[in-house]
Design a protein that fits this description.
With about 90 residues, the chain is mainly α. The protein is built from 3 helices and 2 strands, in the order ααββα. A two-stranded antiparallel ribbon has the order 1-2. Bound molecules: iron/sulfur cluster.
């Protein structure tokens, strides 16, 4: 079972979101986010607040939340979404 500190000792990309990656990865992000209707999305400020929490979270690994397996940016976008670890 993966734990929050599982990858902490390795030289890998932590605290990264897909928006930090190369253009090809950002295209993947846009494709996922476009699936969520505008009216179902969290307000911009709330979305950014959630992502700021994800950036500080030990479960974030290469843009993916290891607690749920989703890209953090996709997980955080729906207005009724919840963090699997109740951090936002
Ligand atoms: S959704 Fe929750 S558990 Fe996952 S990376 Fe963000 S804060 Fe951490």
């Amino acid at each position: 079972m993966l734990t929050e500190n599982h990858y902490n000792d390795k030289k890998i990309c932590r605290r990264c979101l897909l928006r930090d990656f190369a253009e090809e990865d950002r295209k993947v992000l846009r494709k996922y986010l476009e699936r969520i209707r505008q009216e179902d999305r969290a307000e911009d400020a709330e979305y950014e607040r959630r992502l700021a929490v994800c950036r500080e979270c030990g479960f974030l690994f290469e843009a993916t939340c290891l607690a749920c397996g989703c890209y953090a940016e996709f997980r955080a976008l729906p207005k009724h979404a919840r963090c699997p670890k109740k951090r936002w």
